Amino acid sequence: MFQNMTQVHACPDPTTGDAPAPGEMPACDIYQADWTNRSAVRHGYLPQWGSAAANEVRGTDGSLFAHPLTGQETVVTFQEDYRRWIEMVYVGEVHDFHGVSLRRYVFSQEDFRNDSVMSADWYQDNLPTGLSNLTLMGGFPLFLSKPHFLEADPSVQQAVEGLDPDPESHLTFIDAEERSGVTFRTHKRVQLNAGLKRLRFPSLSRIEALSLATILQRDLNEAETRCVREEVTWDFGLPAEGDEHMLFLPMVRYDEGFEMPASFVKDFKKQVLGSTSAAKTVQVAGPLFAVLLALIGVIIIMRGRRNEQELARRRTHRYSTIHEGDIMV
């Protein structure tokens, strides 16, 4: 989907481009790395977001990060579902995952704050906090949120019945091992919502109206059940003062989870963390060992010199004795 892209572009009209092969859906031409923005537009692509910084393809896929992780940094992942990079912040350490301590990172609150300076970059203007606008990607008013509108504006939550936002169950997080940067456990939890304004359906027959009502789980009143030629309107309980109001209707909520099996963690502790500990031991002991060798070398040299001096003294004494004897003779 993002092949050749250094800036994220979307294909809002999937019917643009060459005729599809049998069995394939119509789509834009494959994006080319040498395209300019103008070339991309000619081939049916548009920049996904409102600035070059927002459109950057950056970060990892979330399986591995630069290490060691100190807990002071943020990590960046590129999220396919969001069509964007996401900054994740450190919130604390998770202890004893099969005997390994992990560092937990969650989505930054800034990514869903539509009153922030980032909102223009992400086309978030005039959106309630807690929603991300994916309309360009979907081709219709499509908005991303945390499940059950967790941490969204109260007005968004109050407009929908049956919500039960829970940070424990609806939070997206990554748990990564400190020294290797490897992700051991993750949950990506998101919700896709349709943005609804008043819907008007002109010239609906009774059967058409009943079919649509079934899809929308709506009971029709007597006026709506008759065969109508005039426009039929459902307002979804929106205020009467204008069409600028929108209801965010949850459509899909999903949780993608992964965690390393216990057997892998066991091997990791033995092969990686064990090697790391040994390396640290060598790293600490190495200089001490070098100093010890140097001291031994100094002692050997000093003893050698002492032996040489003693040998020279003996030779001198012997020579002096023989010389004096010669004189006596």
Automatic annotation (TrEMBL):
Q: Which GO terms describe its cellular component?
A: cytoplasm; membrane
Pfam families xrefs:
CD36
UniProt lists the family membership as follows:
Belongs to the CD36 family.
Q: Does the keyword Cell membrane apply?
A: no
Q: Does the keyword Membrane apply?
A: yes
Supply the name of the protein. Scavenger receptor class B, member 1
**What keywords were assigned to this record?**
Glycoprotein, Membrane, Receptor, Transmembrane, Transmembrane helix
